[in-house]
Structure formats: structure tokens, C-alpha cells
Amino acid sequence: MELLCLGLNHKTAPVEVRERFAVGTSRLGEASLALLDLHGVAEGLVISTCNRTEYYLAAEDSSHAVRELENLLAKLAGSDASPHFYRMERAEAARHLCRVVSGLDSMMLGETEIFGQVKQAYQLALDAGATRGVLNRLFQRAFTVGKKVRTNTSIQEGSTSVGNVAVDLAEKIFGHLKNSEVMILGAGEMSRITAQSLVSRGARSIIVSNRTYDRAVELANEMGGSAVRFDAWEEILARVDVVISSTGSPHAVVRPEHVERVRRARKFRPLFLIDIAVPRDIDPAVGEIEEVYLYDIDTLEQLAVEARQRRERQIVECENIIEAELAKLDLPGL
User: Fold this and answer.
1) What is the pTM of this model?
2) pLDDT, tens digit, for every residue of 142-158?
3) Which of 5, 50, 98, 318 is flagged as catalytic?
4) Are 178 and 66 members of one domain?
5) Known active-site residue 318
6) Which residues lie across from 44 on neighbouring strands?
């Protein structure tokens, strides 16, 4: 019996291709069971998330099984997407699964959500009767690997993007982001991404101000927030907790006097300023005000680089754990 993995992910296929092969959670069990209809396939399991769809097979002849599976997928998708698929067999397929479960193959290195997603896919395939000895042992070993990786390494700790570093800093300042309000000055892409990260961690509302008001309205609608005209943002400063600025202005937009005027109205609450603009939007002197926390793009990028370097050093430890656990896995053809 040979082990085979056929799949595509965020690295091999754009979203418009991935969505054609996505399988809803409620259908994972029946999709796994349907793989057994392929000639020579004894076991099957489908994993499907926003970033990947993967098919794991235990088959008598992997080459024949993959041809049948590719033909089936071409019919389901209405076109041949084989250039986007990767194919792995035997130990390579087992190693890949362990890396997936451990968060080493994710868009965000070390992310934890994938562990639960794979575990759910396995349980649905098991309940449907699609897995037996080979895949059961493989996936159970992979879950052991994933748990060891997260227990014995720091692969999931620390953010590796500028936007997420900013959000981590905001949580340290406020304790949590529940009910916090965010104002975006300018409507740039980095501001949008950072604001989305803040909302995902609990920020209550987003207020967008931009010199072109229509663009502010457009971004506010996208974020589920509200827009204010650029000559009115100073009034909003009195109530917000976080300001993300990226206006493209050739000179400072936010100056010490702007903050000084609203300090009493704010009751001297902490104010977190994220300056993503080059040249800088926020006068560095603003950061000298006692309750103000000011970070510019260079500081945030350096923090992100340090986090990425720490993560990368952990990869070696993770790979060592995977290899040690695979050595314990007694499967045919591995």
C-alpha cells in the first residue's frame, strides 16, 4: 500500500483557483469517502481550508491513483488545474502532513488554527469510514508531532508582519483591544491591513479620514466603519485609542499641539500612534508626551524582522522533532 498526497495551497495557486477546489466542512466526510471509489484506493482523506485543499490516499499504485484523482478533479472544477497541484509520496507525504499540522507550511508561520482544522477533517473522514490502518496511524502520529512542536519550541510566538507587530504592541498598552476605537489618517494599503488586524483582535470601530473624502468612505465601508472629512480628524482625536497614519503628506500631519489640545478631554488615557508614512506623518516630538506611545515604520519593521529571525531559528528544532517522530512511524513504503 502506497501513501500519496495531492494538493494545492497559497504558495502554488491564487485564490481564484483554490476556491474552485474548496470543500465545505460539512462535506469533508463524504468527499473523503468518495475517494475510495477511485480504482485501487483503499483509504482517503480531504483537508480543505482557505489556504489549501489536500487529498491523502493509501493506494495499491500511487501513479495510477493520482491519474484517476486528477481526472476527477478536472471534471469537478471544469478545467485542468494540475499545474497548481503538488504531488508527494511515501515519506515525503508524511513529512509534509507533519509540517502542515505544525504550522510550518502556513501563510503565517507557526499559526495554530490549522491543527484544529486538520484534526476536524480527520475525524470526519474517520466517522465516514474513509480511513483505516495507514491513514489512521499517519494522522495520529502527525497530531503527536504538532503537539510536540508547539510544546517544545516557540514557533508560534511573536508576530512576523508590521501590522501584527503593531497590534501586539497595542494589546500590551491597553491589556486588550475590546471596545477600543481606531482612526486611520490616509487610506493606504498598510493602514488598511493594520486596521484589519486591530479589528480581528477586538477593536470596536474604525474611523477613516482622508483628503479625498470619497476614498475615506470607500475604505470605511470596507472596514465596517465610518468616515470623517480630513479637516475634522482633530475632533475625533479626543476619543480614539489608536491612530494609524499614512497620508503621503510631505510634512508632519500630527503635531504635539494637536495632542496637547485634547489631553484633558481624553482624561490622559493612553494614545497609541502608528506612523506608517514615509516621510513621517507624526512629529517625533509627539512621542515625548507622557501617555503617548509612538512607533514609526522603521521601528515596527525592525521588531518584525527580529520576530521572523526568532521564528526561523525555531524551524530547525521543529524539523528535528518531525524527523524523530517519522522514524517511529511504521508504515508500508515509508
Assistant:
1) 0.62
2) 999 999 998 998 876 66
3) 50
4) no
5) no
6) 57
